[in-house]
Design a protein that fits this description.
With 127 residues, this protein is α/β, with parallel strands linked by helices. It has 4 helices and 7 strands; from the N terminus they run βαβββαβαβαβ.
């Protein structure tokens, strides 16, 4: 089976209509189906790695979202299932996210390390 690295760059895509990020859900489904999958968070998706998130009670105008997406929790479940989760350090720094606010379970990598990470996988899917 080919190893697949899913690079997630666009954050919160479709999460108003769904209870989770579709790319994370799909990646976890691949793993549950026997796939060998890894996750790399970059761009705005590095926000998913912030540990102290509580999306409960989200209200937009008169519309409330009863079951909001909780990507950090989803990623922690993925990590427990054996899916490595990497976060690009420079993208967190660009967004003012301190290293101490990130979930400790995720691997922080520099952009210089990305070619080596990509080389560990047969396919790289960029979302």
């Amino acid at each position: 089976m080919k190893r697949i690295l899913c690079v997630v760059e666009t954050a919160y895509r479709g999460t108003q209509e769904e209870q989770d990020d579709a790319v994370l859900w799909f990646s976890h489904a691949l793993k549950n189906g026997g796939g060998d999958v890894g996750i790399l968070l970059r761009g705005n998706a590095v926000n998913y790695a912030v540990a102290a998130q509580d999306p409960a009670g989200l209200v937009i105008g008169k519309f409330s979202i009863e079951h909001p997406a909780n990507p950090n929790k989803d990623l922690l479940k993925m990590k427990q299932a054996g899916i490595p989760v990497h976060v690009v350090r420079e993208d967190t720094e660009e967004r003012g996210i301190s290293p101490n606010s990130l979930s400790k379970e995720f691997l922080v990598v520099s952009s210089r390390e990305l070619p080596g990470l990509f080389a560990q996988y047969d396919q790289v899917w960029h979302w």
